[in-house]
Amino acid sequence: MKKNKTEDIFIQFIVENKENFYRLAFSYVKNAEDALDIVQESIEKTIAKKASLKDGQSIKSWFYKIVVNTSLDFLRKHKKMSLVDEEALEYFISGENDVYQDIDLQRSLDELPMKFKSIIILRFFEDLQIDEVAEILHENTNTIKTRLYKALKLLRIKMNGSSF
């Protein structure tokens, strides 16, 4: 009976957060079909590895870790990173008035090295805490703080440079 309750919680979690997982995968691969494949593969991996979820470990950070790693594996296998065209970006940004600012942000973010880009995506776009980001990326909390500071500094430089 405990197993069914755990499965029910897991299924509910996936259903309630599927858009977040898709957005996270899409932020890495910039392709709708690939992002859906990554989410599906992540769910399959999670079902296969659900016994590895430790007591007290957040299912949220555990699943995000799987989505991030699956996305990175996909990028390594396909060695591709594509820029999002304006039309696709408008489709995925719901209700934002200033699309141009978001395009500049997206382009600047895409130019960052992956170790910085991942931290910004997880911290600000997925609204995860620093310790959750550290857990997902298998890094020390202080390392994440340092990289976040540097990533924001690089992003600020890129954004200011693109506005001239």
UniProtKB/TrEMBL annotation:
Domain RNA polymerase sigma factor 70 region 4 type: 104-155
Matching Pfam families: Sigma70_r2, Sigma70_r4_2
Superkingdom: Bacteria
RNA polymerase sigma-70 region domain: residues covered: 16-80
UniProt keyword Transcription regulation present: yes
GO molecular function term, any single one: sigma factor activity
GO process annotations (BP): DNA-templated transcription initiation
Keywords, ordered alphabetically: Sigma factor, Transcription, Transcription regulation
Gene3D superfamilies in the record: 1.10.1740.10, Winged helix-like DNA-binding domain superfamily/Winged helix DNA-binding domain (1.10.10.10)
Protein's recorded name: RNA polymerase subunit sigma-70
Organism: Virgibacillus phasianinus
